[in-house]
What we know:
Blueprint: E1 10-13, H1 17-28, E2 33-36, H2 64-75, H3 88-101, H4 104-132
Parallel strand pairs: 1-2
Domain FAD dependent oxidoreductase: 9-56
Keywords: Oxidoreductase
Pfam families: DAO
Amino acid sequence: MNAINSGADFYVIGGGVIGLCAALQLQSQGQSVAILEADKVAAGASFGNAGHLATEQVFAIADFGIIKQLPAMLFDPLGALRIDWTYLPKLLPWAMKLLLSMKKEPSQKNSCGIKANQWRKSSRLAGFFAQMGAG
Length: 135
């Protein structure tokens, strides 16, 4: 086990994708950073499938496909989506905007924009890992 740099401004726990990104951002702002990693940097979940950035599975939430799933999500007592029904009148204006953005043209535009952004990020990752010495 290596000694811990006790003079660092910040300590980042974990040397995976997220920890390395946080450390690099802090360093770019002039901060000294120590990464605390139990094993080898970028060797855990970030190395295997769990670290895969699935750009092929990116989609806009404003998609008509979600409408079919909405009732099951709302009425599942253990589900992730919950609505306080007394809040419904306040929610309606936002819900109408969401529904309008589900039209074919805005939905395709949103989806293409999200995917393009993900591809830009994933292409930057190769350089990022090389810069961190983990690529």
